[in-house]
Design a protein that fits this description.
Pnp Oxidase, Chain A; alpha+beta; 2 domains; 9-stranded mixed beta sheet; Double-stranded beta-helix; binds fe (ii) ion
C-alpha cells in the first residue's frame, strides 16, 4: 500500500490496495489510521460491486444501512446512486449546458442531532467536464482564525436549518442530492450545533459553519448573528482552503463528515456521471433540536431524579426530558431518552422507565446498566418474561417486541451505545455482570 499526499490542502491518496477482497488486519489498520489522521482518503484504481463497496466502509467505521433520508438500492442496502442519466442511459435534463447537481459546501445529515461519521463516493462513470467534489478541512479553517475571532465564537451555536437549505436542494431535485425525495420545508426541525466542534476521536477543534445549512446563531438572534455567519462563511470559502477532487474511474473518496465540508461542482447536462455512495455510520450526539429543553440532573437537590425525569417527560411529551444531561451523575454527556413501559412479571402492573436509547435499522437499543449495580434492572427481568412492551419517543408512542442481542450483534450495538454515551463503558467496569443490550423492534399496531 502506498500512501501519498493528495493535495497541499489536505487528504491522502492511496494506491496498491484491492478493496474488492478481504483486507489483512495490517491493511485495515493502516486505512483506519490514515482516515483518523487526515480525514480525507482517496483510494485509486478500484473495481467493485455494490456489496464490495459497502464492505469497503469497514476500516472507516462501517456502513449505515438506513440513513435518515437516503433511498437505498434494495439489491445492495446502503448504496445510493447519484446520476445524471436514467437507468437506461436516458438524459434526465433538457438543457445540455446547465450544470446539474451543483451544491454548496455542507456537512451531511446536518439536520439531525447525531450526524454520520462520513461517506464513500465511488466513481463508476466520470464526465469529461465537471463532476468534482470539493473538500474543506474544518481543522484548517479553525486554526487560521485570529485569536480574537476564536474567543468570540467559543461557546456559540450555529442554527443548522433544513428549511433554509430547501431552495438549493429543490433546484437539484432531479439529481437526487443525498437521495432526497420528499421536499417539505418542515421535514426536520432546526438544530443547534457548536460552532467550534470538538472532534469526538481526536479532540481537535473544527470550525463548524456549513454554508448550505447555517441560518443564524442561537446566542445572537437576528441580524447580528447573520452578519457573523456571513463573515465566517467568507473565511471558510476562501479558495486557499478548498481542494477539488476530479475523479478517475475507480476512485473511492472517503471523508470524515465531523471534520470536512464537502460540495458538488455539478456536471453539464450533456455528460453522463454515475457515482455510488455509501454512508459511514455515526454515533455521538453533537447537536440538539431547538425548542427542546435539556433535562439536567442535579443529584444534590434531587436524589429521586429518575422519577422526576419521567414525570417531566410525560408531562411535556419529551420537550423536556427527551434530552437529558447526565454530567452530574456519570460524567459529561447528554443523550436522548425514551420511555419504556413493561408489565411486571409478578404484579402484572405496568411500569414506566426513562432510558437512554440509540437507533439502528428502525429499532431502538437500550442498555441494562442500572448505574453499574450488581443486579439487572427490574425492567429487564420483566421484559424477559413479557417481551411485549410500549415505547414513547417524544410524543410518538408504539408497541414493540424486546429481544436480547448476543454475539457479534451485541458487540456492534454495545460499541454504538458507548459512542452515544460513554458512561456505559465506565460503569460496566464496576460489576462482574455483563450489561444486557436490548433491541426494541416496533410492531405494526
Ligand atoms: Fe453531501
Amino acid at each position: 500500500m502506498i500512501i501519498e499526499q493528495l493535495s497541499p490542502k489536505g487528504g491522502v491518496s492511496i494506491s496498491g490496495i484491492d478493496m474488492s477482497r478481504a483486507l489483512t488486519a495490517a491493511e485495515g489498520s493502516q486505512l483506519s489510521a490514515a482516515f483518523e489522521e487526515h480525514g480525507l482518503v482517496v483510494i485509486r484504481g478500484q473495481n467493485l460491486t455494490k456489496r464490495q463497496l459497502v464492505a469497503a466502509t469497514e476500516p472507516f467505521g462501517g456502513p449505515e444501512l438506513n440513513p435518515a433520508v437516503n433511498d437505498c438500492d434494495p439489491e445492495a442496502p446502503g448504496i445510493s446512486e447519484i446520476r445524471t442519466r436514467g437507468p437506461n442511459g436516458e438524459a434526465l435534463h433538457d438543457d445540455d449546458d446547465a450544470l446539474v447537481g451543483d451544491i454548496a459546501f455542507h456537512t451531511d445529515q446536518a439536520y439531525i442531532t447525531a450526524p454520520n461519521r462520513g461517506k464513500l463516493l465511488y466513481a463508476v462513470e466520470v464526465p469529461q467536464e465537471g463532476g468534482g467534489t470539493g473538500f474543506i478541512d474544518g481543522f484548517a479553517t479553525y486554526s487560521a482564525l485570529s485569536d480574537t475571532i476564536k474567543a468570540q465564537i467559543e461557546g456559540l451555536h450555529v442554527v443548522q436549518s433544513w428549511a433554509h437549505a430547501q431552495a438549493t436542494i429543490a433546484r437539484n431535485k432531479a439529481y437526487r442530492v443525498d437521495g432526497e425525495q420528499e421536499l417539505a420545508d418542515n421535514r426536520f426541525a432546526d438544530v443547534a450545533y457548536p460552532m467550534v466542534l470538538t472532534h469526538p476521536h481526536s479532540g481537535r477543534k473544527a470550525l463548524n459553519v456549513p454554508p448550505l445549512w447555517a441560518s443564524g446563531v442561537v446566542e445572537m438572534p437576528g441580524a447580528e448573528g447573520q452578519a457573523l455567519i456571513a463573515e465566517l462563511i467568507a473565511h471558510i470559502t476562501r479558495p486557499e482552503f478548498a481542494y477539488w477532487h476530479r475523479y478517475r474511474p475507480g476512485d473511492i473518496a472517503a471523508w470524515d463528515n465531523w471534520r470536512f465540508l464537502h460540495a458538488a461542482e455539478g456536471t453539464p447536462g450533456r455528460y453522463a456521471r454515475l457515482i455510488w455512495s455509501v454512508v459511514i455510520r455515526g454515533g455521538p450526539v453533537m447537536g440538539r433540536e431547538l425548542g427542546m429543553t435539556i433535562y439536567t440532573i442535579d443529584p444534590g437537590q434531587m436524589p429521586n431524579w429518575p422519577a422526576d425525569h419521567l414525570s417531566r417527560y410525560l408531562a411535556t411529551d419529551g420537550a423536556e426530558g427527551y434530552w437529558a444531561d447526565f454530567t452530574a451523575v456519570r460524567g459529561p454527556a447528554k443523550a436522548p431518552n425514551l420511555i419504556l413501559t413493561v408489565v411486571g412479571r409478578q404484579s402484572r402492573r405496568r411500569y414506566r422507565h426513562g432510558l437512554i436509547y440509540g437507533e439502528t435499522d428502525g429499532c431502538c437499543v437500550i442498555i441494562g446498566s442500572k448505574g453499574g449495580a450488581p443486579d439487572h434492572p427490574a425492567w429487564y427481568l420483566n421484559l424477559l418474561v413479557n417481551p411485549s412492551v410500549e415505547v414513547q419517543i417524544k410524543e410518538r408512542k408504539f408497541h414493540a417486541t424486546a429481544r436480547v442481542a448476543s454475539g457479534e450483534e451485541r458487540a456492534e450495538l454495545w460499541k454504538m451505545m458507548v459512542d452515544l454515551y460513554g458512561g456505559y463503558a465506565d460503569v460496566q467496569g464496576n460489576t462482574e455482570r455483563e450489561f444486557p443490550v436490548v433491541v426494541l423492534e416496533p410492531v405494526a399496531d
